[in-house]
Design goal:
480 residues; alpha/beta; Aldehyde Dehydrogenase, Chain A, domain 1; Aldehyde Dehydrogenase, Chain A, domain 2; 2 domains; six-stranded mixed beta sheet; 16 strands
């Protein structure tokens, strides 16, 4: 019983601190509303040094939060991607900051028009638990490149990472520039209610709705990076071994706890057995043992573990075939590790068919034609990612034109997210808005349109009193 008041006190302290820091960041922004390109580059360089100098400590903190996560996996998926993003923004932000010339019409002559990309102010970033480093630094570097100040709310499910990142950020940056906060639900709710100039949330669709409601009270624009059930279609003639190698990378990293992980596979009906056999062989090669294997990530906490086990139990009870790959038949109790699992013979009454899986479980759905596969995808909410494995370019064009998804990766999985020059974002239930690439700079900027008039005042020719000469001139302008 003693833990509850302590949690409340911690949340109260976090809330008071974030409100104070928010006021200081707003004040600091007003004093320096347009940081120079070099100031922004210097901030990104500090962030790069922070990640490199503390790489092992960050990897260790993430692993402690998960119960186990390979340091190599964290370096690949979080540190390296963050460093590449910083390099990209440092290289390009000067060009993006330049005023952009726009065309004017005859009516506006003599004059000129251009767009200036102005920092919006103070940006709020709400980070999920699955990639706590990358999903904090990714939006942060875009916000910094655009010239903003930023406040970051870490997930309560990754307290070790959150505490370390808060400490490191506070040592590298003043609180009125970048600040990190931790805390439970009450702190998260208070954070989302602050009058940010832009708010980015990464997480579930259900929580995303609450974030939008809270932001609406302040008319705060939001970017929502959600998720959903991302499909992967295997083409009829695509080599199965090749397909499984590409699919398992995207599914197995972080034990499937990835927003763009393939959620279900659409496999040609006559190749289901081949898929299952090849899957078993590939998983056994990658993970010959499970319980004490440092390369296999645990489920982040007991709540998520029980959620996934509940999906499997419900599917079994409703007639699904569940195939788990546990090469040594190990007892995994107490480890929060789940074997990579296939679920076949599903129906829409199963909970696993309705909710994003977010774990090491893959649905296998048979299809008999590309038309059928496209209909299946289009009859469901639009996903964050879509994967299609097929060397037939005509079929690939059909997928691109006849389906909607946040992003697409052809002949591979999840790698599109790591392309720094591509926007990343969802559509419909999978999110609103984009960041990464130039779109990240634009998301956290205000595109201010500016018209400058020349010395000659041509507008006096269209001022009252109106008469015959005016009518002739307007008629000629409209018909030209």
């Amino acid at each position: 019983m003693a833990a509850e008041p302590n949690t409340i006190n911690l949340d109260a302290a976090a809330i008071a601190s974030m409100q104070d820091v928010f006021s200081k960041q707003k004040e600091a922004f007003l004093k320096s509303p347009y940081p120079t390109a070099q100031e922004r580059i210097d901030t990104l360089t500090k962030l790069k040094s922070l990640l490199l100098d503390n790489m092992d400590a960050l990897c260790d903190a993430v692993s402690r939060d998960f119960g186990n996560r390979s340091h190599d996996e964290t370096k690949i998926a979080e540190i390296m991607t963050s460093l590449e993003g910083i390099k990209y923004y440092r290289k390009n932000l000067k060009r993006w900051m330049k005023p952009e010339k726009r065309n004017i019409g005859l009516v506006q002559m003599p004059g000129s028009a251009h767009v200036v990309y102005q920092p919006v102010g103070v940006v709020g970033i709400i980070v999920p638990w699955n990639y706590p480093i990358y999903l904090a630094t990714g939006p942060l570097m875009a916000a910094v490149a655009a010239g903003n100040r930023a406040m970051i709310k870490m997930s309560e499910s990754t307290p070790h990472t959150g505490e370390l990142l808060a400490k490191l950020i506070s040592q590298a940056f003043p609180a009125n520039q970048i600040a990190v906060f931790n805390g439970e639900d009450e702190a998260a709710q208070a954070f989302s209610k602050l009058a940010f100039d832009h708010l980015l949330f990464t997480g579930s669709s259900s929580v995303g709705k609450h974030i939008m409601r809270a932001a609406a009270d302040n008319l705060t624009p939001v970017t929502l990076e959600l998720g959903g059930k991302s499909p992967c279609i295997i083409g009829e003639s695509f080599g199965m071994k090749d397909a499984i190698e590409r699919i398992t990378f995207g599914k197995c990293i972080n034990a499937g706890q990835t927003c763009v992980a393939p959620d279900y596979v659409l496999c040609p009906s006559n190749r289901i057995d081949e898929f299952v056999d090849t899957w078993k062989a590939q998983i056994s090669t990658m993970y010959p043992s499970l319980k004490d294997n440092p390369d296999l990530t645990s489920i982040v906490n007991e709540r998520q573990y029980q959620r996934l086990q509940g999906y499997l139990n419900d599917a079994r009870e409703k007639g699904a075939t569940v195939v788990q790959v546990n090469p040594k038949s190990e007892d995994l109790s107490g480890s929060r590790k789940i074997p990579f699992t296939l679920v076949l013979n599903t129906n829409d009454s199963m909970n696993i068919m309705q909710e994003e899986i977010f774990g090491p479980i893959m649905l296998v759905i048979p299809y008999d034609s590309l038309d059928e596969a496209i209909r299946y995808i289009n009859n469901r909410p639009r996903p964050l990612a879509l994967y299609y494995l097929d060397w037939n370019k005509r079929n690939a064009e059909r997928i691109l034109k006849e389906t909607h998804s946040g992003g697409v990766c052809l002949n591979d999985t999840i790698f599109h997210v790591s392309v720094d020059d591509l926007p990343f974002g969802g559509i419909g239930n999978s999110g609103i808005g984009h960041y990464h690439g130039k779109e990240g700079f634009l998301t956290f900027s205000h595109a201010k349109g500016i018209f400058r008039k020349g010395r000659i005042n041509a507008s006096k020719n269209i001022m009252p009193p109106y008469g015959g000469a005016f009518h002739k001139m307007i008629y000629k302008l409209m018909l030209r």
